[in-house]
Specification:
heterodimer; A: alpha+beta; eight-stranded mixed sheet; five-stranded antiparallel sheet; elongated; B: alpha+beta; four-stranded antiparallel sheet
C-alpha cells in the first residue's frame, strides 16, 4: 500500500521533470527531451503518417505486461520490396533503463525520412537498403523506468518475476522511494566506526578511511526498507530476467549466468522479435543500442565460442574503426575479451543465426560530463569494485552544479528510517550517470545514427556482368558471368558459410532450348582455370566477396536464349537474359 | 486397403506367425503377471489412435482425468497431456516417445495412465502429468509407407543446404514397404561380408591384407541429381534433441535453437509454470533404472578447484596462479560488493564464466545406483533371467538430460525392452571354463583328455608352448593343480573376441529375427538394377527391430515393469515437522525447536537441484500474534534435507502472554505440514 502511494508520487514527479517539454510529437522529431514509451509510439505513428509510402508500422508482439512492441520499416517501394534489398536493423532499450538507445533509433528513422531526396547520400542509402527499426525492445522496462522511482540502473530486465531470495515470494522486497522524490538513491548513517568519511574536496562525496583515520559514515545501500520482514533490505526487487541473455544461441541457465531466464525465448517480447527478424532474412547489418561506456562491441561474447572467421573480422574492423571516428571517444571492442562473457546475447544470435554483421552500441560516456569540457578518462584501476569517490565524481559534481544547475545529484537529506533511525538519503538521480543530459542528446543521437548510416553504406551491392558469350563449336557456347560487389560486406557472411546456416547465393543458368554441359567457378581468368562442378553444373552456390568479384563459366549447348539468375538472401536477385546468336 | 498395407510390415507379419506357434519368449521377462487391464494390446497405436485412447481414458474415469492440448506439431498433430490428480499436490511429469522412434514408450505411457485412472489411490497424494507422445510427426512414420526411422518432426529443413528443401528422401526401390540398405561393389568399397554370416557386413581391415568390396548406401535414388543419396529427407527437428542442455547447434536434427520446435516450447513453458513437479519420468531409449546416467564429459567445473581467468583476476586483484575453492572466492568477493548485496555461488559462477554442469553430481549417483540395484533385484524376483543389451545413454539436447540438469529434480527413464543377448552357443567340446577348472580335481582334469584341454587353451589364447601334453605332464607330476592353473589363466589378458565376426549388436538382431521373428527382421539381399549405381543388392534390418518388439509382448512387458514406478514414487522426498519442543528461557523468552524430517529416501533437493536452485524452495513460517521473534526468521527457506534425514530449526521468541504459535511448512514438491505450539503466559 505504502509502496503504491510512493510509486504514484514518483510517477508524477518523473513526468513533470522530464517530459513536460514533450507535449507535442511532430515530424521532424525533436531530440531535446526523452520520450516516454507512449511518446515513442506517438513518434513512430507520426513518422508513419508523414511518410506513408516509405514506411510500414508493425506490431511485432506484446510484452509480459501487454504493451505493444512496435517496428518501423523504412523502404522506398519504387526501388523494390524490402526483402529484395539488404536489410539494416537497429533496435534499442532491450534494457529498460537504457533509454537513450530508443532516441537513437527514433533519430535514425527521422534522419532518413526527413532528408530523403534532400541529402544525396541519405537518398542513396535509403534507395539501396531496407531499414528495420525497433526503438524500444523492453517496452515494460522503459515504461516503468519513466513511471517508477529508479536508480539509473534499475528496471533493466523484462517483467518475469523471479524469487531472488528463494523464500517462496516473488519480487516482494525491492527498493522504496522513502523520500518520495522519484529517485532511488543511497542511504548512509553516521558511524564513527564506519569505513567512510566525507570527501574534504566535496562534502557530498565520501572516501574510504585509511588505517588510523576516523570513520564518519556507513553506507546502507539503496533507499529501502525490509518489506517482507526477513531481515534483509531490497533483496528481491522486480524481475530479473535480462532480455539480452534470453536468446537461443549459446544460452545457459540462470545458475550459469544470472538473468538468463528459465529457457531461451522465455520473454514473450523477445520471442516475438526473434520471429519477426527471422522472417526478414535480408537483414545483414544489426545494431543493438545500449548504455553506457562509449563502445561498439562485436562478438563473440564468450571465449569458448572461438574467434570469428577472418573474413568477417575484416568487415567488423573496417566498420568498427570508422565508427570510432564518427563517434569520437567511443572504442571498437570485442565483447568477451574487452568486457565480459555473456551467453544468449541478441547480437550473438543475429550474427550466428541470421548471418548478420552485428554491433552492440554502448551509448554515452560519463567522462564527457566535465565542467571545463575536456573528457576525463577513467582511471586505470577497475571501477567495478571501487566504492570510493574519485576525480571523475568530483568533475561530474562540478558539471552537475554548473552545467545542469544541480539536476543530476540529489543532496543528502536527513530521514527517519523505520529500522536504522536517523539516516541520510541522497546521491545520483535516476536520469543521471548513464544518460546524457537532454542538452547533450542531440549530438549523441546524430553521431550514433551516423554510425548506422555508415554501416548501411557498406551492405553488399552486387552487380552481374555477363562478360563473355562465345561460340565454341556448333551448338556449344561459353558464357562467362561476373558478380561484382561494391559494398564492404560479402553477400554471405563467412560465419554463415562455416556453419552452413543457409544455402549461400545461387547463380543459375537455364534455357528452354539449352543444356548446361558444364559450369564452375573460374579460379584463374588468365590461365583459364575453372573448378567445374560435377553435378548440376547449371546451379552454382557462391559468395560474392566484399569489394571484390567472383567469375563463373558455363558451357551451354543449345539455341535461342538462356536466363542467368543470381539469387541472394541478403543482396537481392538479378536476372539477365542472354541470346545465343549465330556468328554473323 | 490400409490394413493390407499394414500387414505388409514385417514385424506385424511376424507377430501373427508367432501367435500361432506360441513360441514367444520375452527377452527380459519370462513371467507374465496378470493385471486388471481392460484390454490387451494387439498392435501399436498410431498418433491419431493415441489421442483417441487418451480420450477413452478420460471417459473411463470421469472427473478424474483432464486432457490438455499442449501444442500442435508442424505436421498438424495435437500433442496431448493427461492430468490425473488434485491441484496443490506434488506431481510427477511423465513424457514418452520424444524422438518418435520408440513405439513401446507411447504404449507404456498410455498403459500407465489407464492404470492410474483405474485406481484412485494412485493419484490421491500425487498428481500425474502424462504426455504419451511427444513427437507425433516422427512417430507417424512407423505407420506409413515406406517404413523408415527418423526422429524429425514435420518441419521443413534443408539438410544439404542447397536450393531445394526435403527433395531427396529415401525411395522404396524394391517395393517391399521397408527402407533398408543397398550394397554396391565399388573400387573404393570398404565393407566385406562377415565370414559365416554373409547377410552381415563388416569393415575390411587393410592392415590385415583385407580389401573392401562393397559400398553401403541407404535405399534410394539421387532424386535431386547432386551426386548424393537420400541426403535431404523430409522433416526437420528431433524434439528429443531440441532441449537446452548441451544443445548441439547446427546439428542435422537439433533445430535452429533450443526450443525452436513447438513441441519443445510447450514442455519448457509447462514445466516452469508447474513448480510442483517433483520428479520427471521419461519413456524412451534410455533406462536410468538399469544404467544410471554416466559422467565423463569434459567441462564440468570442480567447485573446490577453480581457476580464475587472468583478465578477471586482474580486475579483482587476486592471484591467478593458484586455484581457489568456491567458498574462498565468495569470502574474497563479499567485501567488494556494495552494501546490501550478498554474494552467492551463482553470482561467482556467472562472473567467472564457470559454465554449466555437464556430468551427474556424485551425490545424486548415490541414489541412482541404489535404485538401480533395487530395480534389478525387483526384476530378478519377478523371474527375469535373460540378458539384454545395455540401454542407450541420453543424447545431448535430449529431454531427460535437460530435465536432470535444469529442473534439479530426480529424473528416471525406462526403455522397457532391449534386444536380448543371444546365448553363447556352447560347443560340446568346450565345456571347460576358468570357473569349472578352478573346482576340478587333478584326476577330473586329466580325464578331459588332450583334445579338450588343447581346445580350451586355444580358446583362452594361451601361448603356443603351453600345449595339452605339457600341462598334463605338469598336473600328473603334481607341479600344478587345476586351481593354480585357473589362477594363472586369470592373470593372462582376456582372449580377444574374434574380430572377423560381425558387430555383436547386429549378430543379436539377426539372432532375434531368426529365432523370434521367423527371420522377418532381416530382409535378405536381393539384386536390383539401380538407375545410377548399376547393379546393387538391397536388403538389411527392419529399421524398428531395436525399438518395436512384437506387440504381443507388450502386455507382459508393461505389467512387469510399470508397477515399479509406483514403488519409485514412494521414495520421493516428503517433508514433515517432527519433534517440536519449547524451552522457557526466562523473562517470557522461549526457544522454539522443530525438526524437518524427510520421510522419503531421495534427498530434497537433489545435488543438482542445490546447484541450479531451480526447485521451488520449501519454506518454514512461524506466525503468532503478540509474539516477537528475537532470533530466527519469520520465513525460513529450507535449503536441504537429505533422504531419510532431519534438520533442526530453532527460534528465540518473546511471548509475554499466553499464545498459540503456528509453524507452517510449505513446499510445492515435498508436501506441507502445520503444527500449533502453545507458548507464553
Amino acid at each position: 500500500m505504502k509502496r503504491k502511494r510512493i510509486i504514484t508520487a514518483v510517477a508524477l514527479t518523473a513526468f513533470v521533470m522530464f517530459t513536460l517539454q514533450a507535449q507535442e510529437v511532430k515530424v521532424p522529431l525533436r531530440f531535446d527531451f526523452y520520450y516516454s514509451y507512449e511518446k515513442v509510439v506517438e513518434a513512430l505513428k507520426a513518422l508513419h503518417e508523414a511518410y506513408p509510402d516509405f514506411t510500414v508500422l508493425d506490431q511485432v508482439g506484446k510484452s509480459e505486461e501487454g504493451r505493444i512492441i512496435w517496428a518501423l520499416t523504412i523502404n522506398n517501394p519504387k526501388t523494390g520490396a524490402p526483402l529484395s534489398k539488404p536489410g539494416v536493423y537497429a533496435d534499442g532499450n532491450i534494457h529498460g533503463n537504457e533509454i537513450q538507445a530508443g532516441e537513437v533509433c527514433l533519430y535514425l528513422a527521422n534522419r532518413l525520412l526527413t532528408n530523403y531526396g534532400k541529402v544525396k547520400e541519405i537518398t542513396e542509402v535509403v534507395d539501396r537498403n531496407a531499414f528495420y527499426i525497433i526503438p524500444v525492445v523492453n517496452v515494460d522496462g522503459r515504461a516503468h523506468f519513466f513511471s517508477d522511482a529508479n536508480t539509473p540502473s534499475s528496471n533493466r530486465g523484462i517483467r518475469i518475476p523471479i524469487d531472488d531470495d528463494r523464500d517462496g515470494l516473488f519480487d516482494e522486497d525491492g527498493p522504496d522511494d522513502l523520500d518520495g522524490d522519484g529517485n532511488i538513491t543511497q542511504m548512509r548513517i553516521r558511524d564513527t566506526l564506519g569505513r567512510f568519511r566525507t570527501d574534504p574536496e566535496d562534502k557530498r562525496l565520501m572516501i574510504q578511511v585509511k588505517p588510523g583515520e576516523k570513520g564518519e559514515w556507513t553506507r546502507l545501500g539503496q533507499e529501502g526498507i525490509d518489506n517482507d520482514g526477513d531481515g534483509q533490505i531490497n533483496e528481491d526487487p522486480e524481475g530479473y530476467v535480462d532480455g539480452n541473455r534470453n536468446w537461443g544461441v549459446n544460452w545457459n541457465p540462470p545458475y550459469v549466468q544470472t538473468g538468463s531466464g528459465h529457457y531461451p525465448f522465455e520473454g514473450t517480447g523477445i520471442r516475438a522479435i526473434a520471429d519477426w527478424i527471422m522472417a526478414r532474412q535480408n537483414i545483414i547489418m544489426v545494431f543493438a543500442f545500449h548504455n553506457n561506456g562509449g563502445m561498439y562491441l562485436r562478438g563473440p561474447s564468450f571465449k569458448a565460442a572461438g574467434e570469428l572467421p577472418q573474413g568477417d573480422i575484416s568487415v567488423y574492423n573496417y566498420i568498427g574503426k570508422n565508427i570510432e571516428k564518427i563517434v569520437p571517444g567511443y572504442r571498437y571492442l570485442i565483447s568477451w575479451k574487452d568486457l565480459y562473457s555473456t551467453y544468449g546475447d541478441f547480437t550473438d544470435f543475429t550474427n550466428t543465426m541470421l548471418g548478420s554483421y552485428s554491433f552492440v552500441g554502448e551509448l554515452y560516456q560519463t567522462e564527457t560530463e566535465t565542467f571545463d569540457g575536456t573528457p576525463k578518462r577513467k582511471e586505470e584501476e577497475s571501477a567495478v569494485f571501487s566504492e570510493s569517490s574519485n576525480d571523475e565524481d568530483r568533475q561530474r559534481l562540478l558539471f552537475n552544479d554548473n552545467v545542469t544547475q544541480g539536476e543530476l545529484f540529489i543532496d543528502w537529506k536527513p530521514y527517519k528510517h523505520p529500522l536504522y533511525g536517523d539516516i541520510e538519503i541522497g546521491g545520483w538521480a535516476k536520469m543521471s550517470s548513464r544518460l546524457p543530459h537532454p542538452f547533450m542528446l542531440q549530438d549523441l543521437v546524430h553521431r550514433n545514427a551516423s554510425a548506422v548510416i555508415f554501416a548501411a553504406q557498406q551492405t553488399p551491392a552486387v552487380k552481374m556482368d555477363v562478360f563473355e558469350v562465345k561460340k565454341v563449336d556448333g551448338d556449344l557456347w561459353s558464357i562467362r558471368v561476373r558478380l561484382a560487389n561494391k559494398g564492404a560486406m560479402p553477400s554471405v557472411s563467412f560465419q554463415t558459410m562455416k556453419n552452413k546456416l543457409y544455402p549461400s547465393d545461387v547463380l543459375s543458368i537455364s534455357g528452354s532450348n539449352a543444356k548446361v554441359v558444364s559450369g564452375g567457378k573460374i579460379t584463374d581468368l588468365y590461365m583459364n582455370l575453372v573448378d567445374y562442378k560435377e553435378y548440376r553444373p547449371g546451379v552454382q552456390f557462391c559468395q560474392v566477396p566484399g569489394m571484390g568479384k567472383v567469375d563463373y563459366q558455363f558451357l551451354v549447348s543449345g539455341r535461342g536464349s538462356v536466363e542467368i539468375k543470381y539469387e541472394s538472401r541478403k543482396a537481392g536477385t538479378i536476372t539477365q537474359t542472354v541470346k545465343l546468336k549465330p556468328e554473323p | 486397403m490400409k490394413e493390407e498395407i499394414r500387414i505388409k510390415y514385417v514385424l506385424k507379419r511376424s507377430m501373427k506367425r508367432m501367435n500361432a506357434t506360441k513360441s514367444m519368449i520375452l527377452s527380459i521377462a519370462a513371467v507374465i503377471i496378470s493385471w486388471g487391464q481392460t484390454f490387451a494390446i494387439e498392435k501399436y497405436t498410431d498418433p491419431a489412435g493415441v489421442n483417441k485412447r487418451i480420450e477413452q481414458i478420460r471417459q473411463s474415469a470421469p472427473g478424474m482425468v483432464r486432457v490438455d492440448k499442449m501444442a500442435v506439431s508442424p505436421g498438424g498433430r495435437e500433442v496431448l497431456m493427461m492430468v490425473i490428480g488434485k491441484p496443490g499436490q506434488a506431481a510427477v511429469f511423465v513424457a514418452a516417445n520424444m524422438s518418435g522412434t520408440n513405439p513401446v514408450a507411447t504404449e507404456a505411457a498410455l498403459s500407465l495412465a489407464a492404470r492410474i485412472a483405474g485406481d484412485e489411490a494412485l493419484s490421491k497424494q500425487l498428481t500425474w502429468y502424462i504426455l504419451p507422445l511427444g513427437n507425433p510427426d516422427a512417430y507417424s512414420r512407423y505407420f506409413s509407407q515406406p517404413l523408415y526411422l527418423d526422429p524429425a518432426n514435420g518441419a521443413a529443413y534443408n539438410e544439404d543446404n542447397d536450393d531445394q528443401t526435403d527433395e531427396d528422401g529415401y525411395n522404396d526401390l524394391d517395393g517391399n514397404g521397408i527402407i533398408t540398405q543397398m550394397r554396391v561393389k565399388a573400387p573404393d568399397g570398404i565393407w566385406i561380408p562377415v565370414a559365416g554370416e554373409p547377410r552381415l557386413m563388416r569393415k575390411a581391415d587393410p592392415a590385415k591384407g583385407e580389401k573392401g568390396i562393397y559400398k553401403l548406401y541407404s535405399e534410394g535414388t539421387d532424386d535431386d541429381g547432386d551426386g548424393l543419396y537420400n541426403e535431404d529427407l523430409p522433416g526437420g527437428t528431433n524434439v528429443d534433441a531440441n532441449f537446452p542442455h548441451l544443445f548441439r547447434a547446427f546439428d542435422r536434427r537439433s533445430g535452429l535453437y533450443p526450443g525452436s520446435a513447438p513441441e519443445t516450447t510447450a514442455i519448457l513453458k509447462f514445466v516452469f509454470s508447474h513448480p510442483e513437479i517433483a520428479m520427471v519420468f521419461s519413456f524412451g531409449s534410455t533406462n536410468y533404472l538399469l544404467a544410471p546416467p554416466q559422467g565423463g564429459r569434459k567441462g564440468s567445473v570442480d567447485m573446490d578447484n577453480i581457476r580464475i581467468p587472468e583478465e578477471i583476476g586482474k580486475s579483482m586483484g587476486i592471484d591467478v596462479s593458484r586455484s581457489y575453492t568456491m567458498a574462498e572466492i565468495m569470502d574474497y568477493v563479499q567485501p567488494m560488493l556494495p552494501p546490501g548485496m550478498t554474494v552467492d555461488e551463482n553470482m561467482i559462477a556467472s562472473y567467472l564464466g564457470l559454465g554449466a554442469v555437464v556430468n551427474p553430481m556424485q551425490e545424486d549417483l548415490a541414489f541412482y545406483n541404489e535404485i538401480s540395484s533395487d530395480f534389478k533385484e525387483y526384476l530378478k524376483k519377478k523371474g527375469v533371467t535373460g540378458e539384454r543389451f545395455d540401454p542407450a545413454q541420453p543424447e545431448e539436447g535430449s529431454f531427460e538430460m535437460w530435465a536432470y540438469y535444469h529442473l534439479g529434480v530426480p529424473v528416471f527413464t525406462m526403455d522397457l525392452w532391449g534386444l536380448p543377448k543371444p546365448k553363447e552357443e556352447k560347443k560340446e567340446n568346450s565345456t571347460i571354463t576358468v570357473e569349472t577348472l578352478e573346482k576340478m580335481s587333478s584326476d577330473e582334469f586329466l580325464a578331459l583328455g588332450e583334445e579338450k584341454i588343447n581346445e580350451f587353451l586355444k580358446a583362452r589364447g594361451a601361448p603356443a608352448q603351453y600345449n595339452a601334453k605339457m600341462i598334463i605332464g605338469m598336473v600328473r607330476g603334481g607341479q600344478v593343480t587345476p586351481a593354480q592353473m585357473a589362477g594363472m589363466i586369470r592373470q593372462m589378458p582376456a582372449p580377444k573376441s574374434d574380430d572377423k565376426k560381425g558387430d555383436p549388436k547386429e549378430m543379436a538382431r539377426l539372432a532375434f529375427s531368426d529365432q523370434k521373428l521367423a527371420g522377418t527382421g532381416f530382409i535378405p539381399w536381393k539384386t536390383y538394377k539401380h538407375p545410377s549405381l548399376g547393379e546393387v543388392e538391397i536388403g538389411g534390418f527392419n529399421p524398428f527391430i531395436d525399438t518395436a518388439p512384437p506387440p504381443a509382448m507388450l502386455d507382459s512387458l508393461l505389467d512387469l515393469q510399470l508397477p515399479y514406478l509406483f514403488e519409485l514414487v514412494k521414495r520421493l522426498p516428503r517433508l514433515m515437522l517432527t519433534d517440536l519442543k519449547v524451552t522457557e528461557k526466562g523473562g517470557s523468552v522461549y526457544q522454539v525447536e522443530a525438526w524437518v524430517t524427510n520421510e522419503g529416501s531421495i534427498p530434497f533437493p537433489t545435488a543438482m537441484g542445490k546447484r541450479n536452485k531451480a526447485p521451488a524452495p520449501a519454506v518454514l513460517t512461524l506466525e503468532g500474534t503478540g509474539t516477537e521473534i528475537l532470533s530466527g526468521k519469520k520465513r525460513t527457506p529450507i535449503n536441504e534435507v537429505g533422504g531419510k534425514k532431519a534438520v533442526r530449526y530453532i527460534w528465540l521468541v518473546r511471548a509475554p502472554k499466553k499464545n498459540a504459535l503456528t509453524l507452517r511448512l510449505e513446499s510445492k514438491q515435498a508436501g506441507s505440514d502445520v503444527r500449533q505450539i502453545n507458548i507464553g503466559g
